[in-house]
Amino acid sequence: MPLTGGDKDNSNGPLPLIWRHLQDALSRRFSSEKAAKRDRFILLFLTTLILALLISPDNHAPSSLYKAGHIASSDVRASGDFLVEDRKLTMEKQSEAVTRVPNVYFYDDRAAENAVERLKKALYILSSVTGLKDGAERELLKLKLSEALGFEPSPADINPLVRVKADQQFYSDIEKQLKKIYSRRIVADQRVFLSDQLTGISLVGREDEKVSDTVLRDEPIDIESARKQLLMQKLVLPLTQEQQSAVKNLLAKIMKPSLVFSREKTDEMKAVAVQAVKPVLIQIKRGEMIVRDGDRVSSEQELKLSGMASEVSLGGRISTMAGLLGVVLVLLYFPYRFALKNIRKFRPSYKDVLLLSILASGHFLLLKTLYSITPSLLVAFPSIETSDYFFLFPFAASAIMVRIFINSEVALVFSAICAPLAGLMYGSIPIVIYSLLGSVIGAHGVRHCDSRSIVFTAGMKVSFVNVAMALSFQLLAREFFSLQTIYVVIFAFAGGIAAAVLASGGIPLFESLFQYTTDIKLLELTNLNSPVLRELMVRAPGTYHHSVVVGNLVEAAAEAINANPLLARVAAYYHDIGKISKAQYFIENQNGGENRHDKLSPNMSALILISHVKEGAELARHNRLGQPIAEIIRQSHGTGLIKYFYQRALEQALPGQAVDEHDFRYPGPKPQTREAGLVMLADAVEAASRTLTDSTPARIQGLVQKIINNIFIDGQLDECELTLKNLHEIAWSFNQILAGIHHQRIDYPQPAYKEKNGGGRRQNENCDNEPPKSPENSDEEGKSGSSEDLKRLGMYF
Length: 797
Fold this sequence. Notes:
By secondary structure, the protein is mainly alpha-helical. The chain is built from 30 helices and 9 strands. The longest helix is centred in the middle third of the chain and has 31 residues, at 350-380. The protein is elongated, with a radius of gyration of 51 Å.
């Protein structure tokens, strides 16, 4: 791939293009160390609001999770005066009220008249029939009769009545007969009616008016009996026998019950009766003991606990939420400000603060989920108490990730903030201790995370500490020899493993999303076969060798001053990658050939040297080496002066012509970290050490001291955290490494050869200058001297 530009990208993994763009956007947005105070304030407020919502108890305390049959793990007293509805007693009263509601029947006092009216309409239609010519007329007649009678008559019902002429007297006689039958009131089913009459019957009329019960002085008959009674009566009508039978059959079918059960009205009256029942309330006084520690929760106690949880007014909810917001804001702001002012390495960037907010929100969202499903777990596993489940939570996961991404100081402050918030959420002091100690142990376990297995090792350490704390809590509660001890030990051990698993899954995600450079990433970058270093080795071999030696120097020095040796070594490997495009303009790559600067002005030469810093930082960004590496590349030369070309410019300047020193200085910035300072010092020392002709330890020590003093006096180390003590330790470390690299060797004497005549040895002659021997002579001499030569080389015993 082209390392100096182009569209290709060697990002790890085949990420989709949109994801890569998102990475770049986030990297540009959050890489600034000068984030506005407004942005941080908004982020702090949003984080406070999110955490307060997650920590809020959702109008129920942990005690309200107790169900009938559970064992209470603590005393529960009433938080105030309130009334609790006894739903069971209230429902019993409502059931009693429903049983007292009478069955509503609709009384039709015009049932006989309505039947006669229907008959009259049907006979009128039939009287006008003169002859049916086709099927359409028959269907029309059938439709009219169905509307008049209320049912579809059969041909046997209507054929005898065609063209029957009936007068008013005819209908009056029929009505008298029907009223005589309806006088006993007609119902659909006599047995059902009598049963309803035992529980009570309410009669209503056509306009829903109340009907007197006197209408029921006689026992009603059902509709079938009424129809049989009608068919048995003899009608005095001016009709043939066949027509009279047809009239009675038609009337029997027309007849309807005069008392009809109204389901709708009955249900309405029952609903009114239920609404009229006042709820049965139990009065609870403030401080009243609801359930004691160790008691088995009864149904009544469960009722009181749930009632106490639901008896929270709107004002109370607002007050609780405001209090939580205040507590969370105080716990977030003041520890953050204290650490910012008093802890030297607590300097989170805006990107770091955003990561902390996301991790904290995710931490408590997961904790909230566990908190919310506890009631279901209690139902499924009633032998496990609610307080046992918090041992299962991976408290250390977030702290592990903070330690890997940022540093131990930020991880400690993060843990110190999250622990009391978790205790506030669960209402438990032990959870504060458990969360804090587990988080600290987890963060400490990944202090040198140079492989992913370290995370699981840290998780195991957390597991053992969790188990120790869980057993201690059981001893304090005097429940060591109980079944709960087994549960909490299992949960505590699993909590540490879960923290390692969760952290292992989150590290690649946040590392990719926020462009963090972890020790694991740095370890991958130490591979000298990486594309960038391979290109450097091919196109700028002198720079490559120089970078490797600088890497050895800074690694040893970083270990001496307790800096990050891995970051320092990787930064040293890549600090001069900007020289790839113009390798022949740098002396270490010229190999004694033509110096291209001889044809350039000092200013142009200085520009070329200065440009390698910018190009190196751009290459680091393009190849996703990480922000720390790119920053150290920019800071590796600080604002140092390019003395050689500055002096040449002074020498070549015309009389009275000023030379601006600023044109011959690197743009900076100066080193901001100890690792960047180490790279600057090692770069200068290694380059200067190549000029030594007599590299004795004393000369190396003097050179190292001189270079470090010059850089210090020039103010290049003013903005990093290297102390004078550190500089002495760095100088000592450099001396040891350089002395090993430039150590002197003894001048081996030439081999002594025996002459053919047995004469003495040749001494102090250069064997390389010997004339070539004839094959015969060489074989003979080789045989005689081979044993001596091998002994001298240590290869013959």
